[in-house]
Design goal:
This protein has about 290 residues and is an all-alpha fold. Helices cover about 70% and strands about 0% of the residues. It folds into 2 domains: about 10-145, no CATH class; about 170-285, no CATH class. It is built from 11 helices and no strands.
Length: about 290
């Protein structure tokens, strides 16, 4: 008999974690704070920047769409209009706070265009949530499928939210494939030791994330396919983002031999580790 679907907290957890990720991305490097020069207008009333590309707008829209989606999915007995308002207003409010804070960071630029783009992204995500909620039986069907495949309860919800955050972070082309550092041109030397260390980084990331997913899967029957789909989806996200957003010269430095070696070794080790007893998988996951 399939497990009875529970009242999920996944949207709340995902919205909280994703909101924290937006705060980090918006205010990094969290240093060199200073008061704006006297006479500087509030960013909403300042002239729009002379150069602004469609790429910048698209990135801001896409960045806030998951937040609007998650906020609009919170709660089961919420009206359609209220869902849309919550998702849009929540994203717009967070963007307003971030743009205001960026006025105190000389390395960042506060802009009304960013606020409008972010609000539009949140509205797009909220609209997707409204459509998802409006299709008869879709939410119940997805929840029932989730209950068959993944662990339920607050622990399962939090684990899936963390996994979703990790997948979305792969869209950032500044982080190499399954690596642990940002700048691929400065992180390690190109000698044998550097290549091996980079391979170890990637291998441990593959094993750690894969085992984290394996611990969330309810039945061993789904383990192999779930892990392969996770790695494949992450590679597609990362590869697509890198090829679209990076120049060819930067892309060549990003595609490191050690990274691919680490992914292959990590994938082989992972396919063996997922069949170990659960206490051993938990320990290896924490170490990785």
């Amino acid at each position: 008999m399939p497990p009875r679907p529970h009242s999920t907290h996944l949207p709340q957890y995902f919205a909280t974690l994703y909101g924290a990720m937006i705060v980090y991305a918006s205010l990094e490097p969290f240093s060199a704070w200073m008061t704006p020069i006297p006479g500087t207008p509030f960013f909403l009333f300042a002239p729009w920047p002379p150069r602004y590309t469609r790429y910048d707008i698209a990135i801001n829209v896409l960045a806030y769409a998951p937040l609007g989606l998650a906020l609009a999915l919170v709660g089961e007995r919420v009206g359609t209009t209220k869902r849309f308002v919550i998702g849009t207003a929540g994203g717009a409010l967070l963007s307003l706070c971030m743009e205001t804070a960026q006025m105190f960071l000389p390395s960042r630029d506060a802009s009304a265009i960013d606020l409008l783009s972010n609000a539009a992204g949140a509205a797009l995500g909220a609209l997707i949530a409204v459509v998802f909620q409006s299709v008869p039986g879709l939410r119940d069907g997805v929840r029932a499928w989730r209950g068959r495949v993944f662990l339920e309860g607050r622990g399962g919800d939090l684990g899936l939210a963390l996994l979703g955050i990790w997948l979305l972070a792969q869209v950032n082309p500044g982080i190499p494939l399954f690596a642990a550092t940002f700048d691929p041109s400065l992180e390690l030397t190109s000698d044998v030791a550097g290549t091996l260390l980079q391979a170890a980084q990637s291998a441990f990331n593959v094993v750690g994330v894969g085992l984290f997913l394996a611990l969330l899967v309810r039945q061993r029957l789904y383990l192999g396919w779930a892990v392969l789909l996770l790695i494949g989806f992450a590679l597609v996200l990362k590869g697509s983002a890198a090829s679209l957003l990076l120049r060819q010269a930067v892309l060549e430095t990003w595609l490191k031999p050690g990274v691919f070696l680490g992914i292959i070794v990590g994938a082989i080790a992972l396919l063996i580790a997922i069949w170990l007893p659960r206490p051993m998988r938990t320990t290896l996951c924490a170490i990785a």
